[in-house]
């Protein structure tokens, strides 16, 4: 997923192309996918990120840029995709193949939300503005999920590679500490 505006980042470039440790975040995420057991990758782009579209050298699924959920729904309706589908946001510069393989191993056939405890995000000093309660715990979405055909499960790792998604410049500074 790499078609958002990234307004909170307040950068002079599109969010997926924002560099963390000198490398665009979307390139870091693509490297992680390539190093994992994922068979095929598609970049989900939108009119909000034309430079990202031009930068990418992977098959793309175009969406209207109406927000993450609407664009994800549009992408999932693409005939090239069959469930289960691993979805990954482009703002996770610490991802690597090993952690993505762990997500896939935790998946049991249905959908899987990968959530981190909000307390872990606060401990790391990164933004946590999208938290919610699940099973009595305050959690935050990681930007990594598996969309399947069945009921939704949840996996709650505390791994920094999933807990740090870059929404602000402060988040980027934290990510660079862990590279």
Automatic annotation (TrEMBL):
The keyword Transferase applies. Pfam families: NTP_transf_3. Keywords: Transferase. The keyword rRNA-binding does not apply. Residues 2-122 form the MobA-like NTP transferase domain. Coiled coil: none annotated. GO terms for molecular function: nucleotidyltransferase activity. InterPro entries: MobA-like_NTP_Trfase, Nucleotide-diphossugar_trans. PANTHER family: ADENOSYLCOBINAMIDE-PHOSPHATE GUANYLYLTRANSFERASE, MOLYBDENUM COFACTOR GUANYLYLTRANSFERASE. This is NTP transferase domain-containing protein. It comes from Haloarcula limicola.
